[in-house]
Amino acid sequence: MAQVLEKKSSPKTKKKPAPANGKPASKMAAPIVSKAKSTAKTFESVIRAHVDIGWGNTLYIRGEGGGLNWKQGIPMQNKTGDEWIYKAQSPTQGITFKLLINDNEDCWCDGENMRVAAGKATDVYPNF
To answer: Residue 88 belongs to what domain range?
Structure first.
């Protein structure tokens, strides 16, 4: 007697319904991420102040350009007892600045605002 094998049908895959406009659905494109490089050049400007302001005090710098502003000072880095340094990246306009002791409005250094060109270093000897 011959054995009869039934052929089992494979399950059918369901198709997604077509959109209402009759056109096939398009895949959403991934957003394009731009990796544009900044074309603006910056230069490191260095300000070295030579002054002894007394033990426990800090020399601050305020100004315009190089991350500075006139409302709140940034502490300068003390290298030796009478040498303070501020380094900043600045675009081509340079930095205009003035120094203060402990960022106190009553302790500005004497004289006019000082300036350093972009990419240059300057040594100042302020009086208070």
So the answer is: 43-124
